[in-house]
Design goal:
three-stranded antiparallel β-sheet, alpha+beta, 5 strands, 52% helix, elongated, binds zinc ion
């Protein structure tokens, strides 16, 4: 399997040099793009941030040269967000799984799905709910509601508000916003 590459020189952020974009593809129709900084002063200052985005549902490769320290900061913020989210989920689970379980104590699967479907935007279909939960006990599949996307709905269902958890989630949103701004080049 051999790769064929085409190089293109592009003006670097400081404008005094270049970086090289290398587009490669192989006999199997795979392709990839790499970017290397040629300019010495830019390579001291910037790191490459490469990402995938979707245009008309097709994955596209994006990239940006970002100040090294800002990029490091953004990545550490993203890591903080992940650890806060993990903490939030385990706190919520620890504190409220019993409440949720009690709430649905006498409900069958269909009744549980009805409630979840009415509270959670674009919740899975009834048939895929049955399918994905077929091997799980009630407490196991109720436990899956303790994920970041569903937490608001879950608190709404059991009518709970938890300041500590809310504060943590606000912090996570702030950090992730700040990281996004750096990564989007603002
Ligand atoms: Zn430069």
């Amino acid at each position: 399997m051999s790769w064929e590459s085409v190089n293109k020189k592009i003006s670097c952020p400081c404008g005094k040099g270049t970086y090289t974009e290398t587009r490669s593809d192989n006999d199997w129709g795979q392709f990839r793009t790499d970017w290397t900084m040629d300019c010495v002063s830019c390579s001291n200052r910037y790191s490459l941030y490469a990402f995938t985005y979707y245009r008309h549902a097709m994955p596209c490769e994006g990239y940006r040269w970002i100040d090294k320290y800002k990029l490091e900061h953004a990545i550490s913020l993203q890591n903080k967000v992940k650890s806060i989210q993990k903490n939030v989920i385990s706190l919520a689970y620890e504190r409220y799984i019993d409440v949720l379980f009690k709430y649905f104590e006498s409900s069958n699967k269909k009744e549980i799905w009805d409630v979840l479907n009415s509270k959670i935007d674009s919740f899975k279909s009834l048939s895929s709910f049955y399918q994905s939960t077929s091997k799980w006990s009630k407490v196991e599949y109720l436990g899956t509601i303790f994920c970041d996307d569903y937490l608001d709905a879950m608190f709404n269902i059991i009518q709970v508000s938890d300041n500590e958890i809310e504060d943590l989630r606000k912090k996570a949103i702030e950090f992730s916003q700040e990281a996004k701004e750096i990564l989007n080049g603002n």
